[in-house]
C-alpha cells in the first residue's frame, strides 16, 4: 500500500552544488540543491534561488556564476555554505577554499572541488518564493587525476566521489558503486513476456 506524503517538493538524489558568485571585491559561495542540467545544445542549466538571498543580488549584478561539485569528504563545508550568509562572513576564508581563475568568465571556480562549470546567466523565471535562473554552461573543468579516458566525457565518477544530497529529506550521502552504463544496460534486460 502507498501512503501520501505532506510535502510534494521532494526529489532525490540531487547534487549539493557550491555556487560561486560576486565580484573581485568579494566572492561568495552558497549551497544549491535545486539544480539540474536541462539541455545539451546549448548546454543549459537551472538553479533556483530564494528571492531574498544575498547571492541572488550578486548573480544579478554580474550575470554569471560557477557551479562546483564537492566530493563527499567536503560535506561539512557544503552544509556550512548553506547556512552562513555572505552578508555576514567571508565563506572562502571560513572554508579555506581556494579561488581558481575561470577561463571564460570572471567568477572563479573552487580549486578543491573536483568538477566545476562556468555559467553565464541567460534568463530569470520567477517561481513563487524562488527565482529560477537559466544559464549556459560555457566551460567545464575536472581534476586531472580524476579523469577516465575510457569514459565518453573523461570523468571517473568513482574518483570524483561526488556528494549526494537527498533534498527535503535533508541528508547527505555518498554515491555507492557503479551498476552499469546507460544506453547499454538495456541489452541485458529480459522483457517479462520473453521469460
Ligand atoms: C543542502 C542545502 C541545499 C540548499 N539549496 C538551496 C537552493 O537550492 N536554493 C536556495 O535559495 N537556497 C538553498 N540553500 C540555502 C542557502 O544555501 C543558504 O540560505 C545560504 O546561507 C545562502 O547564502 P548567502 O546568504 O551567502 O546567499 C540550501 C542549503 C543547504 C544546506
Task: Describe the structure using short key phrases.
single chain; 195 residues; mainly beta; Pnp Oxidase, Chain A; seven-stranded antiparallel beta sheet; three-stranded antiparallel beta sheet; 13% helix; binds flavin mononucleotide
* Number of structural units classed as domains: 1
Shape: globular
Beta-strand residue fraction: 35-45%
Number of strands: 12
Rg (CA only): 18 Å
Q: Percentage of helical residues?
A: 10-25%
The bound ligands are: flavin mononucleotide
Q: Please state the average pLDDT score.
A: 96
Order of helices and strands: EEEEEHEHHEEEEHEE
Which runs of at least 5 residues are low in confidence (pLDDT < 50)? none
Corresponding CATH superfamily: Electron Transport, Fmn-binding Protein, Chain A
The top-level CATH class is Mainly Beta
Report the total helices: 4
Distance between the termini: 27 Å
- The CATH architecture classification is Roll
- Tell me the CATH topology: Pnp Oxidase, Chain A
Estimated structural class: mainly beta
Biggest sheet strand order reads: 3-2-6-9-10-5-4
Please render the helix and strand layout as text.
Elements: E1 14-15, E2 17-23, E3 26-32, E4 35-39, E5 44-50, H1 54-62, E6 64-69, H2 75-81, H3 91-95, E7 99-100, E8 109-110, E9 115-127, E10 130-142, H4 157-160, E11 164-166, E12 171-173
The structure holds flavin mononucleotide.
Flavin mononucleotide binds next to strand 3, strand 5 and helix 1.
